[in-house]
Structure formats: C-alpha cells, structure tokens
Amino acid sequence: MSRERAINLLLAGLLLSVPLAALALGELFYITLATRMAILALAAVGLNFALGLGGLVSFGHAAFFGIGGYVAGIFSSHAFNQTPLFSWPFEFFGSDQMPAIWLAAMLISALIALPIGAISLRTAGVYFIMITLAFAQMIYYFAISWPAYGGEDGLSIVVRNGFPGVNTAVPLIFFLVCYVLLLAALALFALVRDSRFGAALQAGRQNETRLAAVGIAPFRIRLAAFTISAAITGLAGALLADLNRFVSPSMLSWQMSGELIVLIILGGTGRLFGPVAGAMLFVLFEFVLGGLTERWQFFLGLILLGVVLFARGGLIGVLAGKARHG
Amino acid sequence: MSTALIIEQLLNGLQFGVMLFLMAAGLTLIFGVMGLINLAHGSFYMIGAFACAAVAAATGSFWLGLAASLAAAAAAGALVELAVIRRLYDRDHLDQVLATFALILIFSEGTRWLFGSFPLYLDIPQVLSGAVDLPGGARYQLYRLAIIGVGVLVALGLYYLIARTRLGMRIRAGQSDREMIAALGVDIGTLYTMVFALGAALAGLAGALVGALQSVQVGMGEPVLILAFVVIVIGGIGSIKGALVGAVLVGLTDTLGRFLLPKLFAAFLGPSEGATVGAALASMLIYIVMALILAFRPKGLFPATA
C-alpha cells in the first residue's frame, strides 16, 4: 500500500470517527461540523474533476453550488406550501424528498454548465478563469435581483428534506447520508481518472497539441468533464442547503468559488483525497481560528499564502511526498 | 423621457466607464508585462479610498487625501510585489489566483482591524461641488465631470508613458520578450516593481475618486475588480486600448441597461412585473454582452500581440 493510499484511508476514517466520537461524548455540535466538512469536500471533489483532472481552473463553481442549494430550497418551499412550481405540461409541486431534489440539482447544474462551458472552453488560461467568474457573477446578481425566492435575503427550508426509510432530522443520519455520497463521488473520481476518458482529459491538461494529434478533440472531453464537475458540485449545494436549512445568494458569491479552489489546493492538487483533506483542514481552521479571534480571516489569509509559497502540494503533498506525475 | 435625462445617464455611464478604466489599466498592464493575474487589485482600490478618507478627515483637505491615496496604494503595491508577487511570476495561474485571493483576505480583514466595520465618508471638495448646465437643459454634477476629465488625462498620460518614454519602451519590451531585455541589461526586477506600483496607484486613485460619491468601506474593491476583469477580457488582456474601449462599453451598457430595461419591459409586462424582469436582466446585461463578444472573439476585441 502506498503512503498516499494509507493517508487516504486515515482521512476517511478520521472524518467518520469525528461524529461517532461526538455522539459518544454528547457534543452534537461536532456532528454538524463534520457534516459541513463532508459537504464541502463533496463540492470540491466536483470541482476537482475540472481542475485536478482537466486543468480547468474554474473560478465560477459557486454558481453550481448555489444552484444546487436553490433547487433544494425552491423544491421544498413549494412542497411545504403546496403551491405549484409550474403547471404546464403537468402540475408540479416540488418535492421534499432528497433523492428527487438531488437528481434535479444535478440535472439543472449540468444543464446550466453546458452553455457556460461551451462558451468558456473556447478560451483558455486567464480568460477561462475570468469568464467562469463572470458567469457566476451573472447568476449571483440574478439571484439577488429576482424577488420570487427571497432575493438578497435568501430562502429558508422549514423542515429538512427527507430520505426514504431514515430520519434525516437526526444529525448523525444526515452526516452518514452526506458521507456515503462523498465516498461515492470519490469512487467515481477514481474510476474516471483511470478510465480512457480520464486519461484523455489528463493528457489534454499536460499537452493539448499531442492530444489533438492522436485524434481526440480536447473541447468535447473538457465540456463533458466540466458538466460532470458542475453536477457533483450542485449535489453538494443541495446538501449544504439542507444542512443549514437556508440558502442565500452568498452561496453563489465569488468568495465561495475562491473557497472551493482553496479547499483543493490546501489538501493537494491532483490528489484523490486532496479535497477531503482540504475541506477538513479548512473547516477546522474556520472553527479554531474563529473561536480564538474575530479576525480569523486575516490569519486564514496568512496560512493560505504560506501554503502557496512554501508548501506546494498541500497537506497530502507534505504528508505523502511528491506526486508521481503532474 | 427627456433628452436631459438621457444625457445625464450617458454621462453617468461614461463616468462609471472611466473609473473602470483606471482599475482595468493597471490590471491589464500587470498581466501584459508580468503575466500575472492579480485578484488583490481591488484591495489597492480600497486602500486608496481609505487613505484618502482618513487623511482628508485629519487635515480637512481632499487634495492632500488624494495625494495620500496615490502614495498609499503605490507603496502597498510595491511592498506586496517585493514580498509576495515576485515569487509568483513563474508559477501557474492557479497559484497566482490562490495567493492573491489570500492577499484579499489579509487586506480586507487588516483594514477592518484598523478602521473598524463602519463605513467612512468623504466629502466632495468645495471647488468641485455643485452642478453645471449642459445643453438640452440638463444639470450635471461637476464632480462627476471632473472624474471623466481625470480619466481622459490618465488615458493620455498612459499613452504618452508607454509610447513615448524610455520606461514605456522597457515596459513594451518586457511584454514581448522578458529574457531578452534582461539580457540587454535592464533591471527587470525593478521594472516589475514599478509597473506593479503604477497599476496599484491607478487603482488607488479610482478608489479615492469614487470614495467621495459612495461610502468608503471594506469589500468595496471586489465588485469593481470583477467588473474590471470583464473589461479587460472584453478588451483583450494586455491591451491598454482594449481596456479603454472595454471600460467605456461596460460603463455605458451597465448604466443605460439599468435605466432603460425596466422601462422597456414595463411597456410589455406592466409596471411592477416589467420593472422586476428589467432590473434582473439589467444586472446581468454586461455579462451577457461579454459572453456574446467572447463567443465570437475569444481573445477579446483588441488581442495583444505578444
């Protein structure tokens, strides 16, 4: 077993043991903290499909995160108030069941990612970073100025949405739901990374001209990766909305996009468990620094700067040594 | 809708565009010469505004405040370049995004630490207060006209600096081949610091000028920064001319969109619904324009040929 794999198992075990220990000690707050870690990790695993495998630095993934959140909020508010979300071609009253919400969140995120990706992927490098940012801003301003679902004030979810057969209002159960989804997304990531599609995607990151020379158009596989990436981040958004029982335009903000990138880099770029390590570290910083000082963002900034300048490869890079290939 | 109102909105758009140009010129210069994407540019805008407000409040002079804003932003720029940015030139864009994102956190929280969470206010200087008569019966705030004037002067000054001076020649040379001018004996490190400080000073100037129109507060830089990104993407990254055209285009589109679209949709959908749809669409308009331009010209309107 390689050192990285051992660290991955350790991280997965650690994340699972936090809420179990919290339950044993009766400190339920820590379960919420661990759930937040799992959800942010899931969002970052989504982004990692585009950023880690494809080298596509999307600075607009908050758009999909927020869209997922709003799907959860809008579906459950219609289901709660029994008002139709739309009445043509059939009457649809939303849903307060997680599987339906997840499916919708992933589908809608993917459908919105398709045109955004199709335009953004015509460009590369800095242009790509800025265009994805601009598209996310567009959706952000739309959410702020559209009053139907709370506008700037956001939208509350009165009762956490349900999952058939279990009671999601119990913190540990909701954590386990998120944790299983995270593991599923990680498995999908590993599967895609080692598939032909994943190989082409990574080849495109390393050398676009060579990829084109073997007869594979980089644009189409990148668009596919961008769309998958958006769908998974959207799923995470729906979960976060259910955790907070609240969704607001701040989930769509550019800071959120920045944070998602931060999670990946903090954990280690191009690593399977990079987003997990990053999310755990980030939530931990937020919690510990936030408890020590009101100015925790100042110190978070210093830590991030230190990681970029001196600890390339992030947490997993420091623990497991250099990655085998770029 | 009277002509006077339309002239007023056009001028507002132009003033907004000029302000965006001051931001975008620095960003595009820094990217063109150093190949660096700098998210912390909005922080220099904020630093300029805070320096101006603090010095103006202490001395009672807006002009001293303006000088302080230039000095503070340039100093902050030079300091950041020497301490951090310098290490990022040969890194990929991802590292640059992240490091400058960290700088935003540090600057924003640091400013909140120094000045508190409450916004500061900056008064328009006495000489420039009041309004002037324009043809068509419009009256327009003199101060906003002065901002347009400053923008035009800065654009001319930048053109002169880059096209006609030795420093400008070096900047252009740095844009096209940095190894070569280093080999010719130009101290490239100093050149980079100067360009970075110049860009920061322009952003600080913009912040100080706008600070007198809005409140001066933490986080004021980032919305403007994102618009400045849109501007340089539309204009073509690295091109000052593109930044000017893009800034005016974005300024006018945004201002006129917010003014006209609600009225336009109100005519079709009725006043309240129309105003809502129009306002929502207007807030997205510049991004739609940007997407359209990039769909046809992925390198912007004036791609820099480097």
Task: Report on this structure.
Chain B: InterPro entries: ABC_transp_permease, BCAA_transport_permease. Chain B: It holds the Pfam family BPD_transp_2. Chain B: Keywords: Amino-acid transport, Cell membrane, Membrane, Transmembrane, Transmembrane helix, Transport. Chain B: GO terms for molecular function: transmembrane transporter activity. The complex is a heterodimer of chains A (326) and B (306). Chain A is 72% helix and 1% strand. Chain A has helices at residues 3-25, 29-53, 62-81, 98-120, 125-145, 171-193, 196-206, 208-213, 218-244, 254-267, 274-292, 296-310, 314-320, and strands spanning 155-156, 246-247. In chain A, strands 1-2 form a two-stranded antiparallel sheet. Chain A starts with a helix and ends in a 6-residue tail after the last helix. The model of chain A has no long low-confidence stretch (mean pLDDT 91). With 306 residues, chain B is an all-alpha fold. Chain B has a domain at 9-217. Chain B has helices at residues 3-34, 41-59, 62-83, 93-115, 142-164, 166-176, 178-183, 188-211, 221-235, 240-269, 271-296; strands at residues 131-134, 138-141. A two-stranded antiparallel ribbon of chain B has the order 1-2. In chain B, a hairpin with a 3-residue loop joins β1 and β2. In chain B, α2 (41-59) packs parallel to α4 and α2 (41-59) crosses α9. Chain B is globular. The N and C termini of chain B lie far apart (47 Å). The model of chain B has no long low-confidence stretch (mean pLDDT 89). Classes of the chains: A mainly alpha (326), B mainly alpha (306). Chains A and B meet through α5, α10 and α12 of A and α4, α9 and α11 of B.
